[in-house]
Amino acid sequence: MRLAVFNAKGYDRLYLDHFADWQLTFFDAHLNEQSAPLAAGFDAVCCFVNDVVNVAVLEQLSERGVGLVAMRCAGFNNVDIAAARRLGIAVCRVPEYSPYAVAEHAAALVLDLNRHIRRAYARVREQDYSLDGLLGFDLHGKTAGIIGGGKIGQAFARIMNGFGCRTLVYDPAPSAAMAVLAEAVSIERLWAESDIVSLHCPLLEATHHLVNADTLAQMKPGVMLINTSRGGLIDTRAVIAALKSGRIGYLGLDVYEEEADLFFNDLSDGILQDDVFARLLTFPNVVITGHQAFFTREALAEIARVTRQNLQAYARGDCSGSGFIVGC
Ligand code: NAI
Known about the structure:
By secondary structure, this protein is an alpha/beta fold. It folds into 2 domains: 2-97 and 297-326, NAD(P)-binding Rossmann-like Domain (Rossmann fold, 3-Layer(aba) Sandwich), CATH 3.40.50.720; 99-288, NAD(P)-binding Rossmann-like Domain (Rossmann fold, 3-Layer(aba) Sandwich). It has 12 helices and 13 strands. The protein has helices at residues 10-15, 55-63, 81-87, 99-115, 117-125, 151-162, 176-179, 187-193, 213-218, 236-245, 275-280, 297-315; strands at 2-5, 23-26, 44-47, 68-71, 90-92, 143-147, 166-170, 183-184, 196-199, 223-227, 248-253, 286-288, 324-326. A 7-stranded parallel sheet has the order 8-7-6-9-10-11-12, with helices on both faces. It binds 1,4-dihydronicotinamide adenine dinucleotide. 1,4-dihydronicotinamide adenine dinucleotide (NAI) binds next to helix 4 and helix 6.
């Protein structure tokens, strides 16, 4: 069977090999309406977070005989699930690969923001050993509010508990596993009491712009906000206003709502066209990484293993596994 891997980087080619029964072809292009014709003659396509898998693309895939969209990530907010179901295209994903990778990256953003590591490093390289402007705070005793107590939220709670933080969680479907790690509270209490707010819920209609002008006004002045989940959880313009007013004291992002045109590409020769993103880059108390929280050796190996498992199950006509969102 033939698999078209879209949006393929060097590390994807390295890890996504040895797929028994499947012949892989790698395309640099993102999957979108323009590139969908490349999928002609393939049984399945393999996509990532910034590929466009909307109704127009799915219709093109269906016309070309593609029967499976294999997401090599956990989130699937970029796939029109209802359209896939209607067209009879199966959809699978990697529900869990390394919650530690993402939680540890969120913690890295917390530490970098709090202890001004980038600024300190830049100073030391210039033989400037002064400490003005580098003042941090003890994490010990502070309150960390976690939105979404799933696998990553739990891993993050364990890390923050290790620092001696008090941890709170808001989750509409609370789990027993999270209940022993963090105190379950209403979202209003979480906004009001947290020194650090970290987002670990999926992007859904209900969570789109969860962080907005109203909810920002409920947060502690000077709050640290961390988003390693999905960019659409945050109304970026409202966050910029809150950075200017000081409501947000620190902002750590690994995701951005308009990241599709930016992240995963080397654009260093070009002119940045996104004025909102450009404004974010001007704040000294903002650190942004380009959707790399998942990017550890362990996570890539697990993504490849589960993707292979999903493809083999599909080839057997068995789409009952937990990786399948739409069956075959
Ligand atoms: P999960 O499915 O284990 O947990 C998500 C939790 O969010 C669940 O407990 C669910 O009940 C909760 N939730 C649902 N609606 C909510 C709401 N309205 N408010 C608060 N909580 C809500 O997912 P997991 O593995 O913990 O991943 C979380 C998110 O992290 C993913 O949806 C994905 O968007 C993001 N992610 C980011 C990566 C990166 O590289 N930056 C890599 C992997 C995941």
